[in-house]
Amino acid sequence: MEFYTPQDVAKLIGVSPNRVRQLVNDGKLLALPGSGRSKIPVDVIQDGEVLRHLPGLLTLLHDGGFSDQEAFDWLFREDESLPGTPIQALRDDRHTEVTRRAQALAF
Q: Which residues are within 8 A (CB) of 39 and not within 5 positions of it... i.e. 6 or more apart?
């Protein structure tokens, strides 16, 4: 898996590195748990933006009782029924399928 630093993401999405860190802290952007919020997966940025439905999905997972690590693991784990990973499905604009699965897991 490849990662960006907050500085890399800041350049890509046109904000300051502090704003990127705040997005991670607010649960609107995903960072590798245990990395001190400094490793942001390349797959969560697309076309110069945070994946459109990622913030809402992260909120759904956390509200459903997922820890940061569990949410990260779920998003990057292969799911044969999608197929692929939930994060890839988000990148492919299949967010409805991912959201349904997250809702079923969370409740």
A: 3, 4, 5, 31, 32
Mean pLDDT of 67-77: 94
pTM of the model: 0.90
**From residue 66, how far is each of 4, 57, 60, 63 by CA, in Å?**
24, 11, 9, 7
What does the pLDDT look like over 6-42, one tens digit per residue?
999 999 999 999 999 999 999 999 999 888 778 999 9
What are the backbone dihedrals phi and psi of residue 79, each rounded to the nearest 5 degrees, phi first?
-135, 105
Sequence letter at residue 22:
Q
Peptide bond into 83 cis (omega under 30): yes
